[in-house]
Amino acid sequence: MTEKESARGRLPPVRRLVTTTSGDGAAIVAFRDARLQTIHLNGSTIYRLWETAGVPTTLPVRADAGAAAGNAYRADFAGTSLYVADIPHDTVGAIPLHREDSLDYIAVLAGEIDLVLGTETCHLVAGDVLVQAGNLHTWENRSGSACRLLVVVLRATSQVLPDRAASSRSSPAST
Fold first, then answer.
1. Distance between CA 18 and CA 160 in Å, rounded?
2. Is residue 52 part of a domain?
3. I want to staple 110 with a disulfide (CB 3.0 to 4.6 A). Which of 15, 75, 104, 148 is the partner?
4. What is the reported pTM?
5. What's phi and psi for 21, nearest 5 deg?
6. 151 and 175 in contact (C-beta within 8 Å)?
């Protein structure tokens, strides 16, 4: 890593492990360092880690649901999704305003970022947790370092609200 990259706050690699229960009842790591699904969207990098078809899910885990995890915001998806989003430094205006019919639990793991909600901006730093409840929003990283978000998506149904009826839905896979 160069001095410039270090100053920009390069993030460590994402590592995914999945535990399960063996046939004889022992706790084991079923998937260790499994290949990550990685996509690039609006300048950000998204690592799709896991999804379930619905809630509750079935245990023990028998297949790697991270290997085939799809877009958490796809129209026919009714389950849960876990992903990490790395948003690069000095990212302003790269992510369009968007909203989804989902309840998203978001933890800032590293760096800092601004959540922009219309005329209100909330500055979030590592350690902050956000419950994003289907609002029109965007993300702006005005800092000199990358930001890493951990996101859990729960699909939701929405009542039609005045501001919702007048605006369009987002592009799929927006964070």
1. 38
2. yes
3. 148
4. 0.84
5. -115, 130
6. yes
Residue with tokens 């990259």: 5
Is 68 among the domain residues?
yes
Provide the residue type at 21 as one letter.
T
Q: Does a structural domain hold residue 34?
A: yes
- Say what the pLDDT of residue 163 is: 58
Domain count across the chain: 1
Dist CA 45 CA 14 (whole Å): 11
- CB neighbour list of residue 4: distance below 8 Å, 6 or more residues apart: none
CB-CB contact of 101 with 157 (8 Å): yes
Task: Report percent pLDDT > 70 for the chain.
Answer: 86
Q: Pull the structure tokens for residue 99.
A: 């909203």
- Over residues 84-103, the pLDDT tens digits come to 999 999 989 899 898 888 99
Q: 73: domain range?
A: 3-166
